[in-house]
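PROTOCOL LOG
Step 1. Enter all chains and additional molecules of the complex.
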Amino acid sequence: MKLEWHRKIKDLLDTAVYIKDIKGEKFFNISSLIEEISQVYENFYQYDSKFIENFILQTENRLNSILEEGEKSLTPYEIVKITRHPQRFTLQDILENVYDSYMELGGEEELNIDPAIVCAKAMIVRKVGNDLYFHQVMVIGHEKGHGEEFRQGGSAKPWGNEKALRYMKMAETEGIPIHFFIFTPGAYPIEDYPGAAQQIARNLYYMAKLKVPTVAFISEGGSGGAEAIGLADMRLMAEKGYYSVISPEGAAAIEAKLKEGRPPRELVEKCAKALKLTAKDNLEFGTIDRIISEPPLGARRKDYEFFRKLKFELIRATDEVVLQTRSLKFLRKYALSKQDTEDFKFYVNWDLDEDEKEILIENRYKKYKKMAQWAVCEPKSTFKTFINFSHNLSLKFKNEIKYKILKAGHRSFKKFIDELTTESSLLFKPVSDPVKTVYNLIVGKKVKTKLPAPTLTEEEISPYTSPLALEDRTVTCPEAEKYGCPDIWVPDLYGEFCGVCPNCGYHFPLEYKWYLNNIFDKNSVRTFNDNIASGNPLEFEGYAERLKAARKRTGLKSALLSFEAKIGGISLVAVMLVGEFRQGTVGVAEGEKFIRAIELAKITRRPFLALVHTTGGIRIHEGTLGLIQMPRCTMAVRDYVDAGGLYIVVYDNNSYAGPVASFLGSAPYQFALKSTRLGFAGPRVIRETTGQDVPPDYHSAKNALKRGHIQGIWDRRELRKKLFTALLTMGGKNLYYR
Amino acid sequence: MKIEYQNLNLMLQKFKANPYKIYPVLTPHTGYIKEFKVKEGDTVRGPSGKWLEKPGSPLFVLEREKNQKIIRAKINGIVQNLRTDLLNKFVEAEETILEIKHPLSQKEIISEILLSALYIIKAPETARYILSPALASRLEKQGLGKVKVKKGEEVLIMTFMKRETPIYFSEDGNFVLYYIYFTPFQLVERDQPLLGFCQEENLPYLQKIIERIKEEWSDF
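Step 2. Run joint prediction.
Step 3. Record the structure below.
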């Protein structure tokens, strides 16, 4: 009994320290209570049993009331501290307490390709009355560890995310559901192969059509790292968890425009509040489906009651996902929604047949497409909506008939005739050849005339002068010392030279309008969805004014332009992320415009081009509503590519973070202009996370090519020609549909 | 090849009297000196950082065709002979605007002494170089300053595009390998020093001088 009491006092001490860490030293004079408990713990054997018993009872009551008081005044930043606390439960605790048995795959502890990612085959047991049912699942998640340094705090390295993808594929092969557990402050931002951004993009692209039910549980959902294993059919979130586009510290550093050092504490707390990163906020936004309640000030490693609840919720969530694919489901769905005890009333088989898998993917697409749509700022007009809907429907109908029925039929018939002709020619060749030769000698050989190939002429583009070219002065090429470049006269540089040093090929930045006028055919650019505007859904302080200023300066309503255009007569749908508007960051408006544009390309069977003038990542001021654009847009990309579309991305200037780690990075064909800097995180973030400096050319296009991120480096002067060739080469004669 | 003691002593005395090297800063082209960013006696630093990514201290602004170019220091040192009289005046190309008095470090002085005292084998081509296997194994056993080489002996292998060409030692006399300037399998530019050899009888004297430099010189 004494030993039990001793252990109990240790637990009380841990709880008191935990409260102090979360709420601060002054909260209910917790420091003196800690001293008191330590005193008894250290001199345990000097006290008699009665004293110890009373002490435990009293301290327990006192701590419980402090915990409850702490809960009442819990701030968002304190929630962030809870998720990062060493006493917080981790994936290892979940594997031990939620699942009935498990086997870790792809390494153990330190002997692991990436100890921050744990993959395990696990068994979860459902109790229906007196019967037990065993479900096999794949568990994939981040492991923060209980103080182990080698776990990197749950920051998955690129090869860790690759490991996660490998086991997702294995689960798909075996047809078992996947439970994802997100405990990450963010991905480990290094570009070493397979590259942080590239691997997250690959994961998202694959998860978009994963043919097994998936459930994600979020405790610490930090940005792209969370999304790498977060695209699930059902998203659960811990009550004291956070899910955010950026860590409050990162947001504060951006707000304070810090290049080095740590931001002030007050600003960090302010940002934590402004980012609206709590479970409650996320449920309101619709970025998660359900909150799993936790004890006051959050669940810790020994909160077995919480694990029991989590187990029930995981089974219930998987059931719901599975039932949504079934035709006969209504009664079970209703019963499940009313279920509140841990004993299930029925058993659901988690195996899906082929039709159900199709429904599962369709449901997933619909779910993510709908997500955050409420935050789209677009003038509402019933008439206009009706017209747009009718137009899209008629386009869809027309193209379905044209390409799926007529062209597909024609193609099959042509193929059959070709096969027949080749076969028969072999049969008749010995007889027909001598006759043909004699005939050709007498009459002369007929040359088959080919259809003229599409050509490109410079006259087809609009005459455009960059405003930068209007200065009468010279500039120095930044590479002048290395290559001995002479000074360049500005009108030449921004006119004839397309902003490229004629000596070394250094690319000076140019405004987005240059691209619109110098790549596409004259008068062919027709923008659409211009009315969709960037908003301030989180009501982030001071952000509305900044948006207003950006609108006034650029004349644009969002950082993404969507348009139809032609290159050398080839019609395509394109989007452009404009650097002048909030650094080309992506929020709800940009995501929605991207999805609508790619869907138009799909309906009209045209190639889709994404031009990246600059993108600074996901717009932090839109919180998870911005972050959710990563899976949303990637799903649209997957849908388009699977339907046979040709998707090309061309980067210029700076392209970083979320968009590169999702809908841009998942493009099968990515090219970069010489001046591009491409990656997941900038040098400051890399230094702060890894503690190491990166060379100045770490994010250069050359290194991106070397790492296999892009397929080629283009010169801006040849951009139009290169794009034209790419469209012809990759799309071929039958450009729009493979 | 004998070390000329007098020359070496003179050189040492010269370094001792004036342990600096003067680097004149010239205008890269014509233009107007618009602003001086330094004063006489200011300490400036050259490019720094692991990859020399941090540019040197700004020295002055040269303007041509409304293009204001900041000229920066390429080496650490102290500014002297600053031509303040040229402010807002037109200057020709390659005109000295200031000088940077660069304090020589112990390493730089030793390197200067060695370059003048040793028999140096320079890279005949831009290629990768390795020591000949025989020399490398002797070096491993005996260490630098102890491996003797004879005329006609293969000392290096030049390797480029998988083609290997031997390089032979061509001096008469008793020489020992004293210094290796290159890293094996790293690309070495043409005419860069590869190996430094010292005559056996000069070895104690050279070592004495180097010890003296190490004792007497401290880095700034």
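Step 4. Note key features.
Chain B touches chain A at residues 29, 49-51, 53, 64-67, 69 (CB under 8 Å).
Residues 107-216 of chain B form a domain with the OB fold (Dihydrolipoamide Acetyltransferase, E2P) fold (CATH 2.40.50.100).
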